[in-house]
Design a protein that fits this description.
The complex is a heterodimer of chains A (about 150) and B (about 230). Chain A is built from 5 helices and 5 strands. Chain A has about 150 residues and is an alpha/beta fold. The longest helix of chain A is centred in the middle third of the chain and has 33 residues. Chain A is globular, with a radius of gyration of 18 Å. Chain B has about 230 residues and is an alpha+beta fold. In chain B, a hairpin with a 5-residue loop joins β2 and β3. The longest helix of chain B has about 35 residues. Chain B contains 9 helices and 7 strands. Chain B starts with 20 loop residues before the first helix and ends with a helix. Classes of the chains: A alpha/beta (about 150), B alpha+beta (about 230).
Amino acid sequence: MPLQRILIPYNFTMYDFKALEFAVRTFSKSDEVEITLFNAYVPPPKMDTDENSVMHRLKGNLQYLSQRVQRQEEALNEAKQYLVRNGFPENRVRCLFVPKKKDTAGDIIDRVHQHAFHTVILNNKPKKATRFFTGSASSKVVNALKNITVCIVT
Amino acid sequence: MKMPPAEYMPSPESGTFGGDFFDRFPRKKQAESEEVFRSTQRIGKETSMRQDEKIDIEIIKVVTRAIAGSGQVEVMAHHLTQLLVAALEIKGCTLFALNPETLELEPLASFGLSVDYLNKGPVLLDKSIDGIKSRKPVVVKNVKTSKRLQYTREAEKEGIGSIISLPVMFNKEMIGSLRLYHHEPWRISKKDLDSLSLLAETIGMAMMFTRLRHLVQGIQGAIWELPKVLREE
């Protein structure tokens, strides 16, 4: 049986953790799956090299921002370790930590196409207010993908 | 200038604000006294004390340009929180959207706070920082002595010394909240609070713009799903 590639977008919320639990319950006994945890982070904004003091201070502090972004990657690795502790072989769990290029749904859709994933595990909190501002990522992904299994954990 | 590490949190008695009235005031009385200032008018009375002034027009310019320059609300919100943390040299910042049905403040973007703290539980408008419902800025000057927080223990564990909460308004309706978290007790000046309030108003307009844009895109999508014959009528 060919390897089933599963993508789990992960943004460190309790609902994302539910998606991990679902993956453990459903796929950890299978030898034929490979999980990819995916997080698209927003890199600190690029600053113009202005000479005023505020810009100097900001530029210095942007290094601190970059360090904080690195901590996000560590948190993603912790999620990977959770999967490993719960039955997935370490070599079958990967982390994908990349800069955000589109909106959340757009980045997920691009990854699915690029890496030919078979399954995507999303989470959805019903009636979220933030969907008014960002749109529903799960709806966009479901509408955009074809011949892909999309699991939505609520 | 380097940012202090996240763990850095001097106690109120550490002398960071040495010679200040509040540091010499007995803690019990301090807790009993007005620790949470609910209006700019009352905060204005504090101007006779020494206060940190962190915000100038250059910071407002940088942050406003970041808001205006982002095509997506997610990027805009993240850049906003990142820039405020860097410019004000504070611990963290979160922009919330208010859920009008559940009255929960849902994080739209956050920076500088730990995953554990962000997942501490729902932030409810009527239980979170007391007074935010009044739609005025609220300053929790010292988290350790405050009895008006929903998650006091978690805030202390996170190393938060003080919190400033600003309502994000649009057309007199509250649509969200901007919160700034400092490592240490923070006596914000009236001028800085006014500047942040102005920034929150700009954020409100940007958030509402993206909301309307999504609405229009949704209507456009629904029209395109109609049979061609109906679309052309």
